[in-house]
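Input chain follows. Return structure tokens only.
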Amino acid sequence: MDNRAEYTPKGIAFAPSYECPGGCLHCNIPFDRIDASAELDIAAALRVLREAKAMGLHSFQFVGGEPTLRGDFMVEVVAEGRRLSMKPHRPPTNCATAARPDYLRDLFSRLKQAGFTAGFRVSCDEFHRRVPSENVAAFIVSAADFFDLTRFAIGCCDKNEERSRARLGHVALLMTAMGLKARAGKAKLETARGDIKLGFWAPTRPTWKPLPDSEFIFREVDAGANAENATGRGSPAPITRFGCLGPLGVGYVWIDPDGNARACCGNANLFSDKLIIGNIHAEPLAAIVERARRDTVIRLLAEGGPVALAAETGLTCLLEKKHTHRCELCAAVLNA
């Protein structure tokens, strides 16, 4: 098999649980069919981490759900990852746990003792219905006592960038009032303890609940181009052929709370159960990945992403439509 079309995970993405108090309007987690109370067993996660290292995978991340709700899980996985010389990526957080300041500071202290230095990806969205800006500010101010803020990132998921910048400006004012001088610049949230990188992105459409088109930015499909030579006609950039699960892709082995392993760490992961490739409670990680590499759908996604999958499975009609992201196109093909 051409190794350019081979499923090549870059690491492990652990979903300790899907519990989340954020209530984000655009959330991709299908709460209508997922048990948000289920929790991934710590011992099983540590075993998978060791198996991943033996396979040549050297990084891991936390996803969810709100990862900081599972403090014990994070601490033990970080400690084992450090022992294995594996790199943790910045976990996402909506900062809801800042409502429990003693718990949060204890978690920060334990993470630091475990060797965690990656920082966090702080989400600061208009879409957050239940996490006020005060929590975001308090989370960062507290974290500054334990971690290097230059390792942090903060961003907003909203089609309206000006609205996002206004929200970030409000967070900066709150941080200053809490004793950590801050200012929202053009590319960074500038603080007296280090600058935090800013990011803005448009939301992708969840498949499990109806939302109006006005909430999204849509992309055309350029089926004849790849990510390197796309014409870039119009804005935003079109969806092109991109081997998302191949060696140049972005896929991690995503582990659900119930142990199911999914081949991708993108939104289509939860949009369709057809990307479930095994269960860590039933067989070793290496066997799961090896079988996935022989799967036709996984091979096509590794070779040319959802554009190739649609073309090779006779669903070219989907390439004529606009989508909010390549993951939405992938889900449309898988669920057709």
